C-alpha cells in the first residue's frame, strides 16, 4: 500500500469516527428535549461527546502508520552469502515480534535506492559524550524528522539518566542505535555522510558527524550478488552460528516509541517522494581538509603579523615579512618566492622547506654568485660544491646531517643514478632520516638540510617537478 493510500485511509477512518459521534450527540439531544434543564444537559452531553471524539481521534493518529512490505532479516549475524536463505517478516507484525534471546533479529539491508537514516554509536564512554551525540541528533530533526533511539549500558547511573537497558556484563560502556523513521534517504547519500578519509592511524569523517559513530555498518554499495549489510536490531541479542547467544538486547529510550521505528529498511516506492531527504547538507556540513586547516592557520598567523607591524600586505595581496623581504623584480620577473626560500634558511633553521631551488643557465652567466654569497655567511654549515649525488644520498650519508644548506653543482649522475632520485625526493621533504657513518652504527636523526642546484642542463633533475623551484638565468 502506498503512503498516499495509507494517508487517505487514516483520514477516512477519522471521518467515520466523527460522524458516528455526531449521530450520538443528536440522539442524546432528542432524548433530553423533555428535560427541564434541557440546555444545560445538552451542553454537558455535547462537551462529553466532544471530549470522547478528541480523545479517540488523538489516540488514532498518534501512532505511526506502518507502510506494508516484507522486512528482510536473519537469526544470526554471520549470515550465509546465499541470499536465498534470508527470512522475511511483514512490517505490521514487527511490533508484536517476540525478542526472547533465543531467536535474534538482524536486518539484512540489501543495496537498493532508499533506507531510513541510521547511526550506530559504539564508543561512548561518558555522560558528556552521550550528550554530545544527542545534541547533534537533535540538530538533524529539521531535515531528517523524528528519530527512535534505543540501547544499553553497563553503568546503572547512565541507564537511569537516559533510560537505557542495564546489562551488567556488557563489554561496551554504552551502545545505542538511532533510526530517523519519518524520512527516507538515498543509500548513496547515507554512505557519503559517514565517509572517512586518511590512513589507518589518522582516519577522520569528511563531514561534521559525531566522532562516536561507527562507520563500519554502511555496506550499502553493490559489489557482488552477495552484497548486503547485516545490522543487529537493538531489541535483539547477538547470535552467531554454533555459538552461545550474547545477551545485549537493549530497550527503546523514548516513551511511546514503537519497535517498528527501529527498522532501517523502507519502501522503495517513487510514486511519492515528499519524505525523501534531499537537503541533508543543510544540517551536515563538510569539514575542511587537513591541508585547508593548515592553510587557514598559516593565514591567521600572517594576519596577526600584519596587525603587529612585522609584516605588510603587498600590492599583489601577498603578505611579506618586513624584516627580510622586499618585492624585487628584474625584467618584470617576480623573485619574491626565491627570496622567501633563502630567508627561511636563516630565520627558521629547523624548517624543511620541501622544495629544491634550481638555478639553470648557460656556462659563465653568474648563476652561482648568489649561492656563493650565502654559503660564505653559513660557513661550515654549508656544502657549496657537491658534484655527486652518492656523497649525500649514498650508503654513507653523514654529510647530510652536518649542513644546513647543500648545493649540487653540475651533477652528472642525476639521470644515470635513477635509484638515488627517490632518496633525493625523500630528503627534500623529510625532517628526519637514518644517518650512516663508516664504522659507526646507523641512527635516526633530525636532518635540517635544504638543497640547491646550479647546472647548465635543463633536465639535470628528472625527479618529480613538484619538488623543485627553477630559476632560468
UniProtKB/TrEMBL annotation:
Domain NrS-1 polymerase-like helicase: 359-458
Stored Pfam families: DUF5906 (PF19263)
Name of this protein: NrS-1 polymerase-like helicase domain-containing protein
InterPro entries from the UniProt entry: NrS-1_pol-like_helicase
The organism of origin for this protein: Streblomastix strix
